[in-house]
Write a structure and sequence with these properties.
Oligomer: heterotrimer
Structural class of chain B: mainly alpha
Chains: A alpha+beta (532), B mainly alpha (314), C mainly alpha (301)
Distance between the termini of chain C: 33 Å
Low-confidence stretches of chain B: none
Mean pLDDT of chain B: 82
Radius of gyration of chain C: 22 Å
Number of strands of chain C: 0
CATH topology of one domain in chain B: MetI-like fold
CATH architecture of one domain in chain B: Orthogonal Bundle
Order of helices and strands of chain C: HHHHHHHHHHHHH
CATH superfamily of one domain in chain B: MetI-like
Distance between the termini of chain B: 5 Å
Largest sheet of chain B: none
Mean pLDDT of chain C: 79
Helix content of chain B: over 70%
Largest sheet of chain C: none
Shape of chain C: elongated
CATH class of one domain in chain B: Mainly Alpha
Structural class of chain C: mainly alpha
Shape of chain B: globular
Chain lengths: 532, 314, 301
């Protein structure tokens, strides 16, 4: 007992010393109020959380709050509008205790009615084609317990719901939207959007198509008055123009194309932040079609690519190699023991031989039962990194005896074909995924899932994923997900390439910016400030 | 004249129907479809529901007729991706394009006509060679490369001018601010036109100076200056107005590149984004309005003839 | 007043009746006198030979990637350096000339075919069809075509044939006008009437009598057309709608190099200069040809 007290005392002294030591810098780093933060949008922002789109979410995140957001340390769910929550023992009932001091921008209090309205009339309403329903289709309905308590009833047990709720699911005001029709809810006019209020740190003030959007400080924000006076979103579709504006001091932030990095690296006014984001780039295969039906072919095609060299060239090495879909930033669930399929031409060739694809000495192309190993590799036009990935993969695969043809099409055209279901004619394609920060990958790799564009199906993996969803104990859950990572990596349903960093170029005087991708930083814009 | 105008307007209407029909067919027949239907999180069922809401489940001819009827009633629909009424979008972007094209056109005529006349009256002189060379230079330069070079030079290395956009959104913005933002894009957009117009003015001037009436005037002892300005110039203006009219569609079309490079919030950048997003109502609205504007400007050019050349009667 | 512009436009170059017996002799004499045009022709001949024999000339495989040699500065081994994938830029410029010139020439040929066909039909079939076709031509000239080109390619996708077709469809109008004017001028002439009387088909009349007379103007239009098409391809590349990688075209090389504009501006210079030079030479040649082929000689510089 004594010694413990002594230890505590030493701890206290240490803490004081550290605090004193860091005092001067802290004094300098005292957040300062005022100033406008200028951010780029690649297109007009809709400012409407019921539909998707990056420019849209960049603005609406400043004006709205979700029930749950992710923390800054390891992207675990923490309360936002919900102060705390409990999960019923069967995993089918979630009870949220809401914050009481929250007001909408028009002064009306935020209550359980707003949450019930958002869940029942938008998220789960079959008449509203809400784009994120796939993530939360376990929710059956919401029920108001009292003004500050809401219960969510699920169709099946789920212990992963909080992660889904933190992913782009803002709560909307019932008192404004209650008389809107489903068509209006999914497709409101800008005039209607302007009439909507949020609870967020900033209020929508101006929306000029083709030019900019402006949000201004909400003095009554529940977590305290934000430091910034306003955020100015400038519509700048062209990345080189964004870079020029950044250098001219007209923008405070932009996500860089890796090729642009060297242009601003030595600029004293600009700071580069290699931010973590839950995102990976892959070469996807149609797992039900020849030759990708055969696991050995898929494995061989992964072995054939020096992914390390590819990453160095395509994104300047600014990322982490990926061996499965789960992000290394989810440290609590990441299985670092999975080493993936290393670069080995010998292994690649042996696997292809084993699968029956033998080299025809006349053409140097492999053949199986008279059919040549021909791969049509598709990607979208206009993204330099993916174009480069395509030509590099082509060369690596040629080296092991595959005949590779690259086909570029416009993003929309490619995506429509990739998403056409099992009958899709896209056999190999390069794209990327941004997902919620959780290892539950059922939606993308589960048998027959509508967003499983690889048509990969492994019943055993499926069972493990389903079991993990029903497992309340975090440790057991993690153990299951670690198994999933091993299995997916070995099955090679796609060639996992890399988890890129988001290369954030920031004006030196921007402070309080988080370490994760801008999507997450935008949830805590109230903490960002500008030094002079 | 009135009869002529009516006929021209009739032709314009037919042209617009053909143009919009072709665009509509191309747009709906193209693979892919609007971006809003392609969010990676949406299920097939939701896509179908969305299509129904937007009227995209109807047969193409019906969609076109519905669109046409709305246009006749003055409604261009709402943008898929921005939700904004297309008329409002165009209301924001069209004046900016007119400003940019107008500035470029003014710059072109101010620079090109004197240059062309001077080089025609001093043929084979050093000045003539410089004008000729500079013209070819201007015609042959890839526009976006040239624009980016100017940004690097005059906005970044020498921070004299803003790199892009139309006004300073964080400070006080008046006409002077807009004018500063206008300098680089207007120069880039005008360059190719200056070149063509200068060459054209030069050759018209040369051929007019060779005409009988000028020779007659000269033999009667009319002074060189008066000859040039009183007799030759007015006749030279007619073909120049013609060419200016013909350059107008190219100017507006070229604005698509210039506006993208300089982030000028005009019809060009609107069209580029709408085309990539497959934003059907915006594509249709922009196509229609930009064509109407250009065709009407041509009509004005034609009416100008009557003023310039009394021989022409409609 | 049906068409005010055609009536007053002084640049409409039509070969006059009673031109010297050997137009080509006169043409060569004039062209050689115009030193600029002459040297442009020589320069273009060289560029086209390079394009034609690209596979034999290029020092490396233009698509061969060497990841270890990314963005290498110019050296004896790689005279122009390497690009972001370690590909030899000199080889890519040479290979690119083949693609860019092919796009330019093919689009030009396509526009010639459309222009000649429509102009011919309009000339022979006076009346409604003529009016209709000429109004279409006017209409095409009065709308901002680049808008349509980019919209069309953004919608149907920019494969090489699509690019050629779209550029060709947007540039046949001047040829159609020239051919129509020539048909209208030639058909009343005795020898043409005679050949029609003995049953010659219109296509034959077009081929034997009209085209040779219209040839000077068509050649000028074609020369300038190639220049325009090459520029169109590079402008479309800027928007990501040009020739697709890994194939190199000057347009897509320039567009790709844009990412390095700030750090390795030299990367944009090679393809940029090639586009500039080729377009410049074609313009010079076209201008010289116009002078050389204009029998009145009033425009000889």
């Amino acid at each position: 007992m004594r010694s413990r007290l002594a230890l505590a005392r030493i701890g206290l002294v240490l803490a004081l010393v550290i605090a004193l030591g860091s005092m001067p810098t802290h004094a300098q780093q005292q957040p300062r109020s005022g100033g406008t933060l200028s951010l780029p949008l690649i297109d007009n922002a809709r400012v409407w959380p019921v539909v998707g789109g990056v420019p849209n979410l960049m603005v609406y995140k400043a004006a709205f709050n979700m029930l749950i957001r992710y923390n800054d340390q390891d992207l675990l769910p923490v309360g936002d509008l919900a102060e705390r929550w409990t999960i019923g023992p069967d995993g089918k009932v979630y009870t949220f205790t809401l914050r009481r001091n929250v007001r909408w921008h028009d002064g009306r209090p935020f209550t359980a009615d707003d949450v019930v309205f958002t869940v029942n009339r938008i998220w789960t309403n079959p008449d509203v084609p809400f784009y994120l329903r796939g993530n939360i289709d376990v929710i059956e309905r919401a029920e108001k317990v009292d003004e500050a308590t809401v219960r969510l009833h699920l169709k099946v047990p789920s212990f992963t719901l909080p992660w889904m709720l933190g992913y782009l699911l803002p709560i909307l005001p019932e008192h404004i939207l209650k008389d809107w029709s489903p068509a209006q809810l999914i497709n409101p006019t800008p005039a209607m959007v302007r009439s909507v209020v949020g609870t967020g740190p900033f209020k929508l003030a101006e929306l000029v198509p083709g030019s900019h959007a402006r949000v201004v400080r909400n003095d009554d924000y529940y977590a305290g008055r934000p430091f910034l006076d306003a955020i100015l979103y400038r519509v700048i579709p062209d990345l080189d123009q964004q870079l020029a504006q950044l250098q001219a001091g007209q923008l405070d932030f932009m996500p860089l194309d890796p090729r642009q990095l060297s242009a601003v690296q030595n600029n004293p006014n600009i700071r580069i932040n290699e931010a973590r984001q839950v995102n990976y780039t892959y070469i996807g295969f149609h797992n039900r079609l020849d030759p990708f039906k055969d696991r050995r072919v898929r494995q061989a095609l992964t072995h054939a690519i020096d992914r390390e060299a590819l990453m160095r060239n395509v994104i300047g090495g600014k990322g982490m190699l990926s061996n499965h879909p789960i992000s290394p930033w989810l440290e609590w669930a990441y299985n670092e023991k999975v080493k993936g399929l290393e670069y080995s031409i010998v292994k690649a060739m042996a696997l292809l031989d084993e699968a029956g694809w033998k080299v025809n000495p006349q053409t140097n192309i492999r053949e199986n039962a008279g059919k040549p190993l021909k791969i049509i590799l598709e990607t979208d036009k206009g993204d330099p990194a993916r174009e480069q990935t395509a030509v590099i993969a082509q060369q690596y695969w040629k080296a092991v005896g595959a005949d590779v043809e690259i086909r570029m099409s416009l993003f929309n055209a490619l995506l429509a074909r990739v998403r056409a279901g099992v009958k899709s004619d896209v056999k190999a394609h390069i794209l990327w995924y941004v997902t919620p920060p959780h290892p539950d990958i059922t939606a993308y790799y589960g048998c027959g899932q509508s967003t499983n564009t690889f048509h990969y199906c492994n019943p055993l993996t499926d069972r493990i994923l389903a079991q993990a969803r029903r497992t309340p104990d975090q440790k057991q859950q993690v153990a299951l997900y670690r198994q999933v990572q091993e299995r997916i990596s070995a099955d090679a349903p796609v060639v996992f390439l890399y988890h890129p960093f988001e290369l954030q170029a920031l004006n030196r005087n921007v402070q309080g910016w988080g370490r994760f991708g801008f999507r997450d930083t935008l949830n805590v814009l109230n903490r960002v400030w500008k030094s002079q | 004249m009135a009869k002529y105008l009516v006929r021209r307007l009739g032709q314009t209407v037919i042209l617009m129907i053909v143009v919009t029909m072709a665009t509509f067919l191309l747009m709906t027949a193209a693979p892919g479809g609007p971006s809003i239907l392609l969010d990676p999180n949406m299920t097939a069922e939701q896509v179908a529901q969305m299509k129904r809401l937007l009227g995209l489940d109807q047969p193409i001819w019906k969609q076109y007729t519905i669109w046409m009827w709305r246009v006749v009633g003055g409604n261009l629909g709402a943008s898929f991706s921005a939700g904004t009424p297309v008329a409002e979008l165009i209301g924001h972007h069209l004046p900016n394009t007119l400003l940019l094209s107008g500035a470029a056109m003014l710059l072109s005529t101010l620079a090109a006509i004197p240059a062309g006349i001077l080089s025609a009256t001093r043929r084979h002189s050093r000045l003539d060679q410089v004008v000729t060379f500079a013209s070819f230079f201007g015609i042959s330069m890839p526009v976006f490369w040239y624009g980016l070079m100017l940004i690097v030079l005059f906005a970044i290395r020498l921070p004299w001018l803003p790199p892009g956009g139309m006004r300073d959104l964080q400070g006080p913005s008046g006409p002077l601010d807009v004018a500063l933002h206008l300098v680089l894009p207007a120069i880039v957009l005008a360059t190719a036109n200056i070149a063509q117009l200068a060459r054209y003015t030069r050759s018209s001037m040369i051929s007019v100076m060779g005409e009988d009436y000028i020779r007659t005037a000269r033999s009667k002892g009319v002074g060189a200056r008066s000859l040039l300005y009183r007799h030759a110039l007015k006749n030279v203006m007619i073909p120049i107005v013609t060419v200016t009219g013909l350059l107008l569609p190219r100017l507006v079309g070229g604005a698509a590149i210039t506006e993208t490079v300089f982030n000028w919030p005009g019809m060009g950048s609107l069209a580029v984004r709408a085309a990539f997003e497959r934003d059907y109502p915006t594509i249709m609205g922009v196509t229609l309005v930009i064509s109407v504007v250009v065709v009407l400007s041509n009509l004005i050019v034609d009416v100008l003839y009557v003023y310039l050349d009394p021989r022409i009667r409609y | 007043m049906k068409d005010a512009r055609a009536a007053v436009a002084p640049a409409s170059v039509t070969a006059q009746a009673g031109a010297p017996r050997s137009l080509s002799q006169l043409f060569w004499r004039r062209l050689r006198r115009n030193r600029l045009a002459f040297w442009s022709l020589i320069g273009l001949a060289i560029i086209h030979l390079v394009g034609l024999f690209a596979p034999q000339i290029q020092p490396y495989d233009p698509n061969r990637i060497e990841l270890g040699k990314k963005l290498v500065a110019p050296s004896a081994e790689h005279p122009f350096g390497t690009d972001e994938n370690g590909r030899d830029i000199l080889s890519r410029v040479i290979a690119g000339s083949r693609v860019s010139l092919a796009v330019g020439l093919a689009a030009m040929l396509f526009s010639l075919v459309i222009g000649t066909a429509l102009g011919g039909v309009a000339g022979f079939r006076s009346g409604f069809l003529d009016t209709f076709l000429m109004r279409t031509t006017d209409g095409m000239l009065s709308i901002p075509l680049f808008f349509f080109m980019l919209t069309a390619l953004a919608l149907i996708g920019s494969t090489l044939p699509n690019i050629v077709v779209v550029i060709g469809l947007a540039s046949w109008m001047s040829v159609a006008r020239v051919v129509r004017a020539e048909v209208l001028r030639t058909t009343p002439m005795d020898y043409v009437l005679a050949s029609r009387a003995i049953g010659c088909q219109e296509s034959r009349v077009l081929w034997r009598h009209v085209l040779p007379q219209a040839m000077p103007s068509i050649i000028v239009a074609a020369t300038l057309g190639v220049a325009t098409a090459i520029q169109f391809e590079s402008a479309l590349s800027f928007l990501g709608l040009g020739v697709q990688p890994p194939a190199a075209s000057w347009g897509n090389m320039l567009s790709n190099a844009r990412g390095y504009l700030w750090t390795s501006p030299l990367l944009t210079v090679y393809p940029g200069v090639m586009i500039f030079l080729t377009v410049l030479l074609y313009n010079w040649l076209g201008d010289g040809l116009r002078d050389a082929l204009d029998p009145t000689g009033t425009r000889a510089a």
